[in-house]
Amino acid sequence: MRILLVEDDMMIGDSVRSALRHEGFAVDWVRDGRAARTTLATERFDLVLLDLGLPQIDGLDVLRDMRARQDATPVIIVTARDEVSSRVAGLDAGADDYVLKPFELEELTARMRAVIRRHAGRADPVIEVGPVTLDPTTRIVTVRGEPVVLSAREYAVLEAMMLRPGAILSRAQLEDRLYGWGEEIESNAISVYVHQLRRKLGEDFIHTVRGVGYYVGAPRAGA
Ligand code: CA
């Protein structure tokens, strides 16, 4: 999951970014409204965490701009503006949820998962592919009913594939899901995670399409 964090407060931004990275999210962080607008116009994210009081362009305008461009990326407003009128304005402008500062990181990540799940249109949060199940809420992965322990990054690679069974994901697409800007990417990282996942989930669970990428489940027609 790739997240855009829009936050001008260095301390909050830094702690949210490290907490989310620790949970296996890839986090890109911009610090003003103009940078947010440019980034959103050119890159794709799974979710945006949007502060409202921002230098250059207000967060609310960034959001209105996204929705005007038909950009449906889920947005959670994270702000200290606690008046009912700001909350209504945020939701009316197309926000998916609204979190007030100060907040507990646990609550923020729980809301993020809920929004991502709603956005994917799944009533049942547990994803099942063959013998493997993955629950994005609890992050519990099972094989034939037995829980398996995965590192945050192994989990992130598996989740990216299980969210789109049958779709081939290239190494670059998987790296995109794993790393934010400025993070060092080891050249063979994805092969290593896939290798570890195969060891834990069964050698034939993740399929390789040589020179193209990886997928789980039945291949899509034409793939
Ligand atoms: Ca701010």
Which descriptors would you attach to this protein?
2 domains; binds calcium ion; 5-stranded parallel sheet; single chain; Rossmann fold
Give the termini distance in whole angstroms.
23 Å
CATH C-level class of the largest domain is Alpha Beta
What is the tally of beta strands? Answer: 11
Q: Give the percentage of residues in beta strands.
A: 15-25%
User: Which structural class matches the secondary elements?
Assistant: alpha/beta
Named once each, the bound ligands are: calcium ion
Helix content: 25-40%
SS element count, helices: 8
CATH superfamily (homologous) name of the largest domain: Response regulator
Secondary-structure element pattern, one letter each: EHEHEHEHEHEEEEHHHEE
| Cross-sheet strand order for the largest sheet | 2-1-3-4-5
Helix and strand topology:
Elements: E1 2-6, H1 10-22, E2 26-30, H2 33-42, E3 47-50, H3 59-68, E4 75-79, H4 84-92, E5 97-100, H5 105-119, E6 127-129, E7 132-135, E8 140-143, E9 146-148, H6 152-162, H7 171-178, H8 189-201, E10 206-209, E11 213-216
Parallel strand pairs: 1-2, 1-3, 3-4, 4-5
Antiparallel strand pairs: 6-7, 7-8, 8-9, 10-11
Task: Give a quick rundown of the structure.
By secondary structure, the protein is an alpha/beta fold.
